[in-house]
Specification:
The complex is a heterodimer. Chain A has 15 helices and no strands. By secondary structure, chain A is mostly helical. The longest helix of chain A has about 30 residues. Chain B is mainly alpha-helical. Chain B has 14 helices and no strands. Chain B is globular and about 75 Å long. Classes of the chains: A mainly alpha, B mainly alpha.
Chain lengths: ~280, ~290
Amino acid sequence: MRFTKASVLKALLTLGAWVLALLWISPFLGIIMVSVRPVREVLHGWWVLRPFTFTWENFVNAWTGQLGTYPLYVGIRNSLIIATFSTILPLTVGALAAYAFARFSFPIKNLLFLTITLLMAMPPQVVAIPLFLLMSRLRLVNTYLGLVLVHSAWGTPWIILFLRNYFMTLPKELEEAARIDGASDFEVFCDIVLPLCKPALLSIVALQFTWVWNDFFFALILMMHPEKYVATQCLAFMKGEYHVPWGLISAGSVITMAFPIMLFFLLQKYYVRGMVGWLVRG
Amino acid sequence: MRTKTPILFLIPALSLICLIVIYPIMDTIYLSFLTPEGEFAGLRNYAEVLNSKEMLDLSRFPKTYPPWGILIHNAIWIALHLPLSLFLGLVLAVALREVKGSSIVKSMIFIGMVTPMVVGGWMVRFMFDKDIGIVNLLMRTLGLRWLADKTWTVWPELSLLATILGSVWMWTGFSMVIYSAALATIPKEYYEAAEIDGASALQKFFYITLPLLRPATLTIVVMTVLYELKIFDIIFVATRGGPGGSSNVLALEMYFRAFRYFRMNEAAVIAVLLTLLTLIPAIYIVRTAVRR
């Protein structure tokens, strides 16, 4: 094999990139190192490797909450329920609305579409107070339904925008043929359009589930009962009385992160497409 | 019969959005013009909030360390976080383009974008801790003892900087991915033609790559500014806006006034101000959406 200037340069670049990547994720490595070792071993830095004792203790304590923190298994259960329904509901209503925007014309269509697009940029704080009062009046504070409704409404605008753009790229001929055969609009939508949209629907599932799972603000204002805390809340309030319980926090972080990260690696292609697709045109 | 269809398709989504997004926005705006007793206050709430030291403290800025007022803190977030994440994302995207196994490296960097920001907040405490922080270890190695021997998040001089740097670490994956996607759309022929004309690597970068990345850059700027304005979780967990308000920002101050001090009208004012600021980048999104 010959060593040309270019091949050496390329090898160096590759090496540099890998070193950089390892440095970049070193805080995550640190969290993992702290989570699987007793606290006394990492007091002077997790990079000190002698002695190295492996233990599940931190995970058990964070999960069960037996040291007085909010038990993470409750949070994970609540987060799973909420994130699942907060993905299904806006996907359903958003897909229907997106189809209307993509295929039909109706009065104030453009104004409506503009408003919905604008809503994507709103900060959650601008709805916080009235939402809390509304949910109190409806007795939906500390309920799954309340938080699911909020996440669903909040996720619907970008789902409409994303799916409308996707629907517009589909050929109309199939739908028209089905209509001539006597299918109703709803049948066309369910039987012809949706099956063609699997990649787009998977992108939405990946992104919406992750966003709901990672949310903290809405849960903070609507879930005040520890029985109803979501995972991010349990983790945020994992405090010791006098010191930071790094063992619990690192184990809790690893558990809480694991779900969106697994979903990301499972649906990576769709995840990135969902993020890039509606942002970069071309 | 055909004309009824769009309404039926729209009703579920629109009723959800009206009840849970539009009505609360209107009500927040309305609240911001009322006194706590429910009387019309005109712009008095706005004047009071904007004139308070928590919003803007010119007796401290820029002469001494934070708190400088949350408006300045938010501005500093944009001034530091935006160029850093743009630059790092671009460098990574360009450097990784030619690298073997780059997709794994990219995925590793992108993990920050998938991670809950609450974890990010703990990460900030973790990275800048005087005993177990990796940044402090780095500073100690470089001989910068005054930066190594304190936990950054509990020092007013450093808490704002620590949250910003921690967030850059989390967010850079976003600009890298967008830039990578945009780079992949540039045809190879452009570079080949430039090579025939004898262009250097630097010339190719500045005359081909950079101009063609303009739309991607705009997108990243808009999304990043929106993210920076709305920053909440990472600060809530890392510093609670402290110490002494030195890392406080608009979203956090709104939460504290509404849900800790129950000063709803002032909180509504801050929420409206934050919303007005997000409208500037939002208009770009609307323009892109409509041009399609």
